[in-house]
Amino acid sequence: MYRDPVTAGGPGAPSRDVLLVSAIITISLSVTIVLCGICQWCQRKLGKRYKNSLETVGTPDSGRGRSEKKAIKLPAGGKAVNTAPVPGQTPHDESDRRTEPRSSVSDLVNSLTSEMLMLSPGSEDDEAHEGCSQENLGRIQFSVGYNFQESTLTVKIMKAQELPAKDFSGTSDPFVKIYLLPDKKHKLETKVKRKNLNPHWNETFLFEGFPYEKVVQRVLYLQVLDYDRFSRNDPIGEVSIPLNKVDLTQMQTFWKELKPCSDGSGSRGELLLSLCYNPSANSIIVNIIKARNLKAMDIGGTSDPYVKVWLMYKDKRVEKKKTVTMKRNLNPVFNESFIFDIPTEKLRETTIIITVMDKDKLSRNDVIGKIYLSWKSGPGEVKHWKDMIARPRQPVAQWHQLKA
């Protein structure tokens, strides 16, 4: 029997069209709710991943090694000897290791904004590192005594604590140089303690045949350095103590705070240079402007200066450029610019070494002084580097004191 499709459902029953529309609306709402949940989850995950990419950038460590030789000559006929650790005491060689999270280079260079956030003034990583160089350089423990019967001065280097990190790995490879000032030609050195911010040396040094009258005229000078195989050792800090102020009749033990290292050979002069970073071209322009009050290296009381500029990456020399030589001039004006290609992701492991040289025709050229520019150099150099990053495409000029 034929039934009317409109009235087949009975009185008050919804039509097929109404049911179809209701079903579509219900499905749409369900899909919308699911998509909203997925979007919120994605935003949280992506946001967390982007934040981590800025906070967990790791840098590779560079290999270290060292071959030791001990000085045995001493002015005034004395003899310096490095003895073995005192019996009954076990030398320590613990490594103060810090595990750093790492991420791929692509995370670092997602945008220039990421790099600027990480290297610009005010970032936590750089402020903490710079703070170590300016304030907390650690401290060193040592002992000194004199044996009147054997005319021997004994210096024992025991340990250091809370040394600042000088390497990209977040640690240092410290060792100690020992001098009896004013003589700096003859020095003794401890062993290198690899990757250790709290090293134990327990090494004893004997200055034999050294008359007491001359001992009290000397200053014991200790310099702590971070060993670098392929570049200049980084100074960490120094301690000096006049021996005429020490009771040498018995071994005296001292804890001394390390102070910033100074150049004991006098002023070497200053160099004015500018840095200009171009992120779009991945380059840095180094402009050697002028120098003043350079140290005289020639017999005539003058120098023939020129400037070498080395680009270093991961302790490897990449490229070298140099200026012309200025004859007999202690205040030369160079005004020469050099362009180096440096991708953004390599900035944190790049160092620019600037060396002022004295040209000699008949002998080897003399080094007047050096400057190391990077994000981990001394306070003045770090400031210049960070100012360059913070002001892209603008030349940033600054005077630098030349160092040995």
Describe the protein in words:
This protein is of the alpha+beta class and 404 residues long. Among the domains are: 139-257, C2 domain (Immunoglobulin-like, Sandwich); 269-402, Sandwich (Immunoglobulin-like). The chain has 6 helices and 17 strands. A 5-stranded antiparallel sheet has the order 1-6-3-2-9, with no helix packed on it. A 4-stranded antiparallel sheet has the order 5-4-7-8, with no helix packed on it.
List the helices and strands and how they pair.
Blueprint: H1 16-55, E1 79-83, H2 105-108, H3 112-119, H4 124-134, E2 139-147, E3 152-161, E4 174-181, E5 183-189, E6 200-208, H5 212-215, E7 219-226, E8 234-242, E9 252-257, E10 270-278, E11 283-292, E12 305-313, E13 316-322, E14 333-341, E15 350-358, E16 366-373, H6 379-390, E17 396-401
Antiparallel strand pairs: 1-6, 2-3, 2-9, 3-6, 4-5, 4-7, 7-8, 10-11, 10-17, 11-14, 12-13, 12-15, 15-16
How large is the count of helical segments?
A: 6
Would you identify the regions where 5 or more consecutive residues have pLDDT less than 50? 1-9, 41-73, 86-134
Q: Structural class, please? A: alpha+beta
Shape: flat
Strand content: 25-35%
- Can you tell me the CATH superfamily of the domain at 269-402? C2 domain
The CATH architecture assignment of the domain at 269-402 turns out to be Sandwich
**Oligomer category:** single chain
The largest sheet is: 5 strands, antiparallel
Query: Could you state the order of secondary-structure elements as H and E?
Result: HEHHHEEEEEHEEEEEEEEEEHE
Q: Measured on Cα atoms, how large is the radius of gyration?
A: 32 Å
Neighbour order of strands in the largest sheet: 1-6-3-2-9
What's the mean pLDDT score?
74
Instruction: Compute the number of strand runs.
Output: 17
CATH topology of the domain at 269-402: Immunoglobulin-like
CATH class of the domain at 269-402: Mainly Beta
State the helical fraction: 10-25%
Note the gap between the termini. 112 Å
